[in-house]
Amino acid sequence: MEKKILSGNEAIARGAYEAGVNLAVGYPGTPSTEILENMSRFKDEVYCEWSPNEKVAFEVAAGASLSAARCLVTMKHVGLNVAADPLMTLAYTGVVGGFVACVADDPGMHSSQNEQDTRHFARFAKVPLLEPSDSQEAYDFMKLGIELSEKFTIPVILRSTTRISHSRGQVVLGKRQEAERPIGFEKDPPRFVPVPVWGRKMRIRLEEKLEKMRALVNRHPANRIEWRERKLGIVASGIAYQYAREVFPEASVLKLGWSFPFADDLIREFCSGVEQVLVVEELEDILEEHIRALGIDCIGKEVVPAIGELSTDVLLASRARLEGRQATEPQTSVLPEVEDLPARPPVLCAGCPHRAVFYALGRFDVVVTGDIGCYSLGTFDPLNRIDTILCMGGGVSMAHGMDRAGDPRPVVGIVGDSTFFHSGITGLLDIAYNRGGSTTIVLDNRTTAMTGHQCNPGTGTTLMGEKVQAASIEAIGKACGIENVVTLDPYKMEDCMDVLKQAIESPEAWLIVVRAACPLHARKKLGSTLRVDEGRCIACGKCLNLGCPAIEGGGGKPRVNPLLCSGCGMCRQVCPVDAFVDGEEACHD
Amino acid sequence: MTEQGVTSVVLVGVGGQGILLGSEIIAEAALLAGFEVKTNEVHGMAQRGGSVIAQIRYGREVFGPLVPVGSAQVLASLEKIEALRFHRFLAPDGVAVVSKQEIVPVTVSGGKATYPQDADQRLERVFPRLLCVDALEIAERLGSPRSANVVVLGALSGYLALDNAIWEEAMRLRVKPQFLDVNLQAFSAGQELAR
Q: Considering only alpha carbons, which residue of chain B is nearest residue A547?
């Protein structure tokens, strides 16, 4: 019996492998990314790909499933919005090979623009929902997902959260078991073509499947009652179960692992066996609302917060509220030694090519509609050069909207390479087709950087490790009908400024592709480490406006941190007195 | 109210300093020692030079992966003021192991805030049990400045009841072979400091 420490994401990948998954696809997004990265270790037996976006990934998996392949598709919570269209109707047509959509939520918004609760989607789409509470269950439920999916011919949502995906714990491993059924699509239009006449029948069949699942969910081992004291009974799913066990060790617990369709009989049995019912769930009050709808009195969001993530500490305060005590959170009084500490927000890395564009944009009175990626960090001091962010690809289309609304300022939409391929192309097509005048900048750093450097259609590599033809952003722009297409090297800051000026002042649409590889990914220095010649430096502070973490200021003349400096030379270009000179090679490794 | 017999360790620093590796090695060591282990780390946006935290818990039975406030036996920091920022996790009788490295945040460089000049005194006041280590200097002497994280790991190992052989095996399992030797040296240099 092999036992390993795995993160939740590693455990899901391992579970998928053992469940005989033939195809694993997705789009990167924290906290889901590492599932597919780990899956690619099994690429000899499992076809893996990063698709251009979640909708495409979902459809790829749907097609494969109809050909009887077992499939895993991965994405973060907001990715499921993009893939919602295929989800809603795949629930109708049903699947053939096991189909699990692993969707990772981000309560507390550690690395996301919202904290929507994917459990709503399971109820919305009427598909089964599995919620692991640790790495072992992440592994087990992945396998269970494939099993349930094939048994009921329905897609299954495996919902992870940041603290499941990025926590590590022990997992007992097993062996891979492949499906007996051979790959091959069996034609059956009334089953797979939801034209109204057949779609109406699918609608009924979906309800019948739910009814069959309801019979099983009440006695399935993924849902269990742990009887302890009968005074307080807690209903919990996912990571909330762990916090509840820690904070209420004496309480009876109804632990829901297969949490939709609702296990009504089990819920009734549990609630009638305890004096008071407390529902502990992270984010929305989905279970609580349903339990109340069953006519059962319970406590939930009155004491457990609905906003932000839960933790043992948060739940300790909930327990205090439940018991009518003042919430005594230990050491919350802020010590004078820590109350004035400088904040340390994330920043664009030293040598990041995006920096030049934001610095240059700082010279113009424009509105900048930004997008999702590392470059969202261009929002903060001292760059301050992103005015809006909405969603993947939104930067391109929103710029067009502002421009067409007649905003008095020129509008610039900024998008990264991976985001451009994800959903920026359609926005650009709109700008060209409907003759807009906004400027689109694609920050092409040759990788999907924010999530840890995944390949994308522009990188010329695949997750299977193949070298392929890289998609050309410029050629796509031209094919869309954009006439002004320019490619820039961001490390030549004067060129950037000149081209930006031309584009911004032009009434026509421009596509500017700013291309330089992410130095963190390329793992090489861009030039020699620089230092400040104190004799020349006049402490004007211009270099500090770059917001480079390698340039340390804070009174007096700035210093270069040789451990961080990448030698990109942007500081050299903004320094009016040539104070940045070649320094000692400080990095030995 | 938290579980009996659970050891909690909090590892903090600045994104890019190698917190993740430190967390993996501790977890591996605890597993080798026969404990149940849970850890939690920060990925994504928070890694781009921001404050980062990793949490490790082990014992007979562990539920939540997050360390409750005031319960960590050891708080190890790869940067001075990050130790102060996350001090609340340390138990009243816990030990703080702090690298003397200072990394200036952009908020300071931008003139919006100041790096406390009295960081050393603050550390002494906030942490009754404090071990400050020249982790970067030691790592640089070994020719591998990036191993400063492992020097700190060696130092904090002195406060956890796990055998030396176990730590070595955990390092072997988690460190890339080409960096193993220098990291084993960095680890024992750290251990020396905790004696």
A: B106
Q: Is there a contact between A20 and A178 (Cβ–Cβ < 8 Å)? A: yes
Decide if the complex's ipTM is over 0.90: yes
Is A337 an interface residue toward B (CB < 8 Å)? yes
Burial environment of residue A443 by CB neighbours within 10 A (0 to 12, 13 to 18, 19 or more): buried
Å between A293 CA and nearest CA of chain B: 30
Per-residue model confidence as pLDDT tens digits over A556-580: 899 999 988 999 999 999 999 999 9
| Per-residue pLDDT tens digits for A400-451 | 999 999 999 999 999 999 999 999 999 999 999 999 999 999 999 999 999 9
Residue numbers of B between 89 and 108 with CB closer than 8 Å to A? 103-108
Beta carbons of B1 and A316 less than 8 Å apart: yes
| Chain centroid offset of residue A69 CA | 26
Structure tokens at B135: 């982790």
From CA A98, how far away is CA A69, in angstroms rounded?
7
Which among A110, A329, A338 has the least Cβ separation from residue B84?
A338
**A67: distance to nearest CA of chain B, Å?**
35
CB contact under 8 A, A242 and B24: no
> What structural domains does chain A harbor?
3-217 (3.40.50.970), 223-322 (3.40.50.920), 354-522 (3.40.50.970), 530-582 (3.30.70.20)
To the nearest whole Å, the CA of B191 is away from the closest chain A CA by 23
B7-104+122-190: CATH homologous superfamily?
Answer: Pyruvate-ferredoxin oxidoreductase, PFOR, domain III (3.40.920.10)
Cα A127 off chain centre by: 22
